[in-house]
User: Which sequence fits this backbone?
């Protein structure tokens, strides 16, 4: 919090990222394969651009 007043920096990005991962963990509770969990995290964070047909 001091960084905001001294330098104008916030922790908004980190807080948002942590929130997205927490929500994803709740949504993927039944996934037992750790590789599938990381694939799902990558898909949600990077979006579906990797699979878009151009």
Assistant:
């Amino acid at each position: 919090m001091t960084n905001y007043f001294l330098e104008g920096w916030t922790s908004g990005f980190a807080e948002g990222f942590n929130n997205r991962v927490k929500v994803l963990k709740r949504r993927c509770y039944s996934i037992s394969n750790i590789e599938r969990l990381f694939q799902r995290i990558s898909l949600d964070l990077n979006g579906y651009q990797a699979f878009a047909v151009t």
